[in-house]
Amino acid sequence: MERLGVGDLARIERRVVTCRRCPELRAYCASVAREKRRAFASETYWGKPVPAFGNEDARVMLVGLAPGAHGSNRTGRPFTGDASGDFLYPALHRAGFATGSKAAHRGDGLRLRDCLITAAMRCAPPQNKPTPQQLRNCFPYLLAEFDALPRLRVVVALGSIGFAASVRMLSERGFTFDEKRPRFAHGAEFSARNAHRVITLLASYHPSRQNTNTGKLTRSMFDAIFSLAAAAVDGVPGAVSRSPAQARPSSNRERSASSETR
Ligand code: SF4
Fold it and tell me: Are 201 and 192 spatial neighbours (Cβ–Cβ below 8 Å)?
């Protein structure tokens, strides 16, 4: 893929939606869209690769795993229409990164502020388990999205696969980390530097139903992650290296209207 630059998110989105690099995944997503879950039998599923949600002004990038078969693969927007989104968007709203807490479909009017949501994969893999080859196929889109965010300061990786993709993304763009081998752990923070800027990488458990229903990821744990993200974005001294438990409670922060997203 040619290197896309600033202002190219719309072009990236057009390429993502028509991508056929993983024909087996396109076939799987289309079959899920045809067969549907009974609860959504009256809906028309998206059934295609799911593009990022956000715009070029974002200073925070969230990197998840992949669309859910009956969530994003149904609605066409990341974390929209499933239990993960029901946990994520309220947290983003409490932290001031989203205009609302409910995400139902692409036309629901929800806006992000200063934030872009993407994933390691843009097609739903069976059992949420992408193959290494599928991850490699999709990685250029993550790099392209990174290149399209000139103000980016914080990457929040949701889950170990999103974390690995985030580390690779930053490494490919010449960033080196304060730790030789960044390892995934909930609440872990890393500074990534290149010649031009410093980006904070935060790791969080994925807000999957499995993690939230079992208490592995609680509301307060998740809020602490976004408090850290907000502090790092604003350049609060000492934001990096504090543990989430020490972070201030998040609040609805005023963010510039210019950084609102579709
Ligand atoms: S997973 Fe990514 S690379 Fe594979 S078909 Fe979907 S959009 Fe293309």
Answer: yes
Tell how far the Cα of 21 is from the centroid of ligand 1, in angstroms. 6
Question: Which tens digit of pLDDT belongs to each residue from 25-60?
Answer: 999 999 999 999 999 999 999 999 999 999 899 999
Q: Residue whose CA is closest, atom 4 of ligand 1?
A: 22
Contact 87, 222 (CB under 8 A): yes
140-153 burial by CB neighbour count: b if 16+ within 10 A, else e?
Answer: bbbbbbbbbbeebb
Ligand 1: which atom is nearest the Cα of residue 137? 3
For the Cβ of 49 lying below 6 angstroms from any atom of ligand 1, the answer is yes
**Inter-residue contact 182 to 167 (CB < 8 Å):** yes
CA distances in angstroms from 172 to 143, 175, 194, listed in the order given:
8, 7, 11
The label of the residue with tokens 């993304």 reads 169
pTM exceeds 0.85: yes
Is the shortest distance between the CB of 121 and ligand 1 below 6 Å? yes
Where do we find the tokens 């609040």?
251
Say what the alpha-carbon torsion angle 203, 227, 83, 53 is, to the nearest 10 degrees.
-80
Cα(48) to ligand 1 centroid in Å equals 9
Report the SS3 class of residue 192: strand
**Angle of CA points 216, 218, 219, to nearest 5°:** 160
9-259, superfamily in CATH? Uracil-DNA glycosylase-like domain (3.40.470.10)
Check residue 1 and give its pLDDT: 56
